[in-house]
Design goal:
The complex is a heterodimer of chains A (238) and B (240). By secondary structure, chain A is an all-alpha fold. In chain A, 76% of the residues lie in helices and 0% in strands. Chain A is built from ten helices and no strands. By secondary structure, chain B is mainly alpha-helical. Chain B has one domain. Chain B contains nine helices and two strands. In chain B, helix 4 packs across helix 5. Classes of the chains: A mainly alpha (238), B mainly alpha (240). Chains A and B meet through helix 2, helix 3, helix 4 and helix 8 of A and helix 2, helix 3 and helix 6 of B.
């Protein structure tokens, strides 16, 4: 097996060794989707919305559960593994290979949590275009996972990294719930804006707007580039 | 008592030594409150508080986000205080500091974080919303921050780091922004059981009405006391 494969498998094994982590991947999404749905069902129907408030809540919860699990995985993969990664580099594993292995593990986790979240959503809500919806969820997960890597590479400790990611994530999620219609231009630059639009359309109408898909892909690529730059600039020793 | 004070001072020095953390304590609430001041459209809405009141949506959301920002900060701080201080606090106990003194010192520190978060959040929202009763608003925001700070401590004992941060990310968001949001037409039963219910009810009354329900504040304090007992037991067992 190549070094990349070995390192990726080691990261996945290390994650899966803790039962809490597996519960995190497979138990939290149903809870989050349902809680979001029930909470937003108490809101009046939004005149600007394409679906009922409860459905929009489940849509937002599905996106939230996927994106922020991936975001936290990305963050902690980088922050908490610095010392171990430094030893791997000293043993001859290239930094790019090391980061690639971390990202491969992140992709695997994102694919899994997106699948679980979408299955949970489909139990209560008809999903018009499941393939597109899954792609949008994976895009949101990758985007936040990579942002987690960037934050983890830039900030020195878990507390600071968690605070930044939590505030970014909660503001982003609150803006994308659709509780209020906003036309503020800055909001379009938030990471979940385009994945949310893509995912909502895929669930409710089955349509795909090329601009939303392209913007989501562009954001993921930009975040990937930022993750590589931040990780290499910082060095694994932090 | 001097040992409690010394432990608090040591904790404050530790905060001072981490300028990135100090900056975040100020910057993050400012960021959230200003963002929503900017993003929420100009429109008026009827809020279903103790009495119906018509206010701007922007004022409403900002009055919700300020307590939420304080609760988020305190919750994450509580979680990491539990996770990072456990080993050092265990050594303090071995060195002769009583477990209750260690726990008391940590809770004072947590109160300091909650106070800073409350002050910064409230000051940032002031240009948009000047609460009718500022004292009650500040007290309610601090109450919510303290409750979530102690819940963070409990989460730190029960969950690993990943799940703990996720719960503290998800909890205040769903509780304060969704379940307690006054834009919702009804308050479901479960919302009344959540930690943010009483603090936000008092905060919104204080922001927009001439009077608050002292009973609601008292119930919020009782909720805080219950969470405080849980946190004390959890923390005490870890360091004792």
């Amino acid at each position: 097996m190549s070094r990349l494969g070995t390192a990726t498998a080691a990261h996945v094994r290390s994650f899966a060794r803790e039962p809490v982590n597996l519960g995190f991947l497979f138990v939290l999404p149903p809870v989050v989707v349902e809680v979001y749905g029930r909470a937003m069902a108490t809101f009046p129907e939004f005149p600007f919305a394409t679906a009922g408030a409860g459905t929009l809540g489940r849509v937002a919860g599905t996106l939230f559960s996927t994106a922020f699990v991936a975001g936290l995985l990305g963050l902690f993969q980088v922050i908490s593994a610095r010392r171990g990664d430094e030893r791997l580099v000293l043993c001859g594993l290239g930094r790019t290979t090391l980061l690639a292995s971390r990202l491969a593990a992140l992709v695997a986790a994102t694919l899994a949590v997106a699948a679980v979240s979408l299955v949970v959503l489909s139990l209560s809500t008809a999903v018009s275009a499941p393939g597109v919806a899954y792609a949008a969820l994976v895009g949101a997960g990758l985007l936040y996972g990579l942002l987690g890597v960037v934050v983890g590479a830039v900030l020195p400790r878990e507390l600071e990294g968690s605070l930044v990611l939590v505030f970014l994530a909660d503001a982003d999620s609150a803006l994308s719930t659709g509780i209020f219609a906003t036309d503020a231009p800055l909001v379009e630059f938030f990471p979940l804006h385009y994945p949310h639009a893509l995912f909502t359309d895929a669930v409710t109408t089955g349509t795909v707007r090329g601009g939303d898909a392209a913007a989501t892909a562009a954001y993921v690529l930009a975040a990937l580039a930022a993750a590589f730059v931040a990780y290499r600039a910082r060095g694994v020793s932090g | 008592m001097s040992r409690v004070v010394a432990t608090v001072r040591a904790g404050l020095r530790e905060y001072r030594r981490t300028p990135a953390l100090l900056a975040l304590l100020v910057v993050l609430p400012v960021y959230v409150v200003l963002l929503f001041q900017y993003a929420v459209p100009d429109a008026t809405v009827t809020l279903h508080l103790d009495e119906p009141v018509r206010v701007g949506i922007d004022e409403t959301i900002v009055a919700v986000m300020a307590p939420m920002a304080a609760a988020l900060l305190a919750g994450i701080a509580g979680l990491f205080m539990m996770r990072s201080a456990t080993a050092a606090d265990g050594r303090l106990v071995l060195a002769g500091v009583a477990p209750w003194q260690v726990v008391a010192a940590r809770f004072v520190l947590l109160g300091a974080v909650g106070t800073v978060a409350t002050a910064v959040s409230a000051a940032t929202m002031w240009p948009t919303v000047q609460p009718v009763q500022p004292g009650w608003f500040l007290a309610a925001t601090l109450l919510g921050a303290s409750t979530y700070g102690l819940l963070g401590v409990v989460a730190g004992t029960a969950l690993n780091r990943l799940a703990g941060v996720y719960v503290m990310l998800f909890g205040p968001m769903v509780d304060v922004f969704l379940y307690q949001n006054p834009l919702a037409g009804e308050t479901p039963t479960v919302a009344r059981l959540l930690p943010g219910h009483y603090p936000l009810a008092v905060a919104l009354d204080a922001a927009f009405l001439g009077g608050v329900e002292p009973t609601e504040f008292a119930l919020g304090v009782a909720y805080l006391a219950v969470v405080g007992v849980l946190a004390t037991v959890a923390y005490g067992r870890t360091v004792g």
